[in-house]
Amino acid sequence: MSRQGLAKLLRANAHHGAIPGFKRNLLLREFLPSLGMSTRTMSSAGLDYMVFGEAYLYRRRNAFGQVLEMDHLPAINMRVKRDGGFVMLQPEGKEIEFHRDEVEHIFNYDVEQNIYGVPDYLGGMQALLLNEAATLFRRRYYSNGAHAGYIFYTNDPNLTEEDEDELKAQITASKGVGNFRSMFVNIPNGAEKAIQIIPVGDFQAKDELEKVKNITRNDVIAAWRMNPALAGIIPENSAGFGDIEKIDRVYTSNEIRPICQLFDQVNDTLRQDRRIAWRDTPAAVENTTLGV
User: Which pTM value belongs to this model?
Assistant: First the structure.
């Protein structure tokens, strides 16, 4: 999957763009900042994990090889080397290489490979793109007055060439393709239906936009495993979605805390590193964990 493509998808749909940030905020609610990792670093790494299914953290060490803190490395530019190290892509084809023990790689396991993380929402990507296409379609519809315009049809022999030129001028001067201003036409002794306006397509009358938007919206939030009450969806019944506090507790317990357990590997690695560097001094080790 293209990292740049996944990043651009965040701007394709309102729900898809807002949900990863919301889940990141729920993750930050469970996070305790410390000297090992700041809230800003955790915020960036958490958003990377939601969008790309993986996050990268750099172990910043002192002169004695002890880890002082963890810094965020943008996942969109990170690649795994064949020898087990890492590379961060830079502009103009430049690269920054990291050894295996310099980077903490947190990723969502994929059944097809165990090199990169994969986000869970990929199954809803087609629904997301269809939602975007429907929105762009309606936007062009309103900008143009009517999608694909109209056929202005005349078949009356009494319509003079001067009248035809005047009608053409009025249509050309209209704002937007296919958008007609109010117009008065008088043809003496004209036949019935001498002038007709035939729409090529009427998307609005069939109300297809609402159906497409609702169906694809449901697919998007299902792909994110997001409860509708937390996704900013307006309930269609008077009862609503129920107790929002209970929904929040259940969602946090089932969705957010398992992600916290994945980030706990940073604590485990840091504890192990501290014990090796400081010859197993538990008191010092416990005071330098990240608090995830």
Answer: 0.75
